[in-house]
Design goal:
Layout: H1 8-11, E1 26-31, H2 46-52, E2 58-63, E3 80-85, E4 88-93, H3 100-111, E5 120-121, E6 125-129, H4 136-152, E7 158-161, E8 173-176, E9 180-182, H5 190-198, E10 207-210, H6 215-228, E11 236-243, E12 246-253, E13 256-266, E14 283-287
Parallel strand pairs: 1-2, 6-7
Antiparallel strand pairs: 1-3, 2-7, 3-4, 4-5, 6-8, 8-9, 9-10, 11-12, 12-13, 13-14
């Protein structure tokens, strides 16, 4: 048991959320009922996992929340498979895990704006990290978030997932198809967040970032939304350029535009995980 004062999520409450989301254009989720090892791919056949690595996608394992989950372990006979890319998310069920070729074809179809044959579009999904073996904070804070979401949103659209990165920002969740990761979602913000996601909107102050953007642009998007008062999908990135540690970007919503300058700085040493005693540094991104 970690001492109450050593939980990584409690030790890093002063760290800004924005700019902390992992970068990925495509997300693939494979249903696996657990147990989940620290590295999700270790739960899969070694050769299969190696082929998945060729997809250039973020690979994670998912399962239904406990009240709706089969009482068994491992891969179900007909696992759900979820793919999100290019602002779309689609789901299917297969007999055993699909081949990497099947997944690649599905990703390509979604990228063209087509729903793959045998798949169905989902309007939205929320993936909550509850990956205990990766970090204790993910489970102790993620599971209550799941329960809170089940109370205010469609239970069929709530999933538990393995690592989303940044355990110190727990509880964290990924909204699809927006591919926005949120952090420090307190119980009193759950209803607001779920309502926004169902409407295709965002909650800027809870955003870690959109995974399709690099960290500097993740930070810039949050700053632009706050400046322009925009929560919906009308915000558009017009252009961006980098000069050393500074990134300049221009954003538009309707007739309003704003220019955001973000500076990359050296973050202070932190305990990034409950399971790590050593201190490490991560870059910090500040909108000027």
């Amino acid at each position: 048991m970690v001492d109450d004062e050593r939980w990584c999520a409690q030790l890093n409450t002063d760290e800004a959320l924005h700019g902390s989301a992992p970068v990925a254009d495509t997300h693939v989720f494979l249903e696996h009922l657990g147990p989940w090892p620290s590295s999700p791919v270790e739960a899969l056949d070694l050769n299969y996992a190696a082929e998945l690595d060729e997809l250039e996608a973020s690979i994670a394992l998912v399962r239904r929340p406990a009240p709706f989950r089969e009482v068994r372990t491992g891969i179900p006979d007909r696992p759900h498979v979820i793919v999100s890319t290019a602002g779309r998310v689609a789901v299917t069920q297969t007999h055993g895990l699909p081949s990497p070729t099947t997944l690649a074809d599905a990703i390509a179809a979604l990228g063209r704006g087509e729903c793959p044959a045998g798949w169905v579009y989902e309007p939205w999904l929320i993936m909550v990290c509850t990956h205990a073996r990766r970090d204790a904070c993910c489970a102790r804070l993620g599971r209550p978030l799941v329960d809170d979401l089940l109370a205010v949103a469609d239970p069929q659209r709530i999933w538990e997932t393995t690592h989303l990165g940044g355990h110190r920002f727990a509880p964290t969740c990924l909204a699809l198809p927006s591919q926005v990761i949120y952090g420090r979602v307190a119980s009193d913000r759950v209803s607001e967040l779920a309502s926004a996601i169902t409407r295709g909107e965002v909650v800027p102050d809870l955003m870690r970032g959109r995974t399709t953007y690099l960290p500097a642009l993740q930070t810039a998007e949050v700053a632009a939304r706050i400046q322009l008062g925009i929560r919906d999908d009308t915000l558009e990135l017009l252009d961006s350029s980098a000069d050393g540690d500074r990134t300049t970007s221009t954003w538009r919503a309707g007739d309003a535009t704003t220019e955001i300058i973000v500076e990359k700085q050296t973050g202070r040493p932190r305990q990034l995980s409950c399971g790590k005693d050593r201190l490490e540094t991560r870059p910090a991104f500040t909108a000027l």
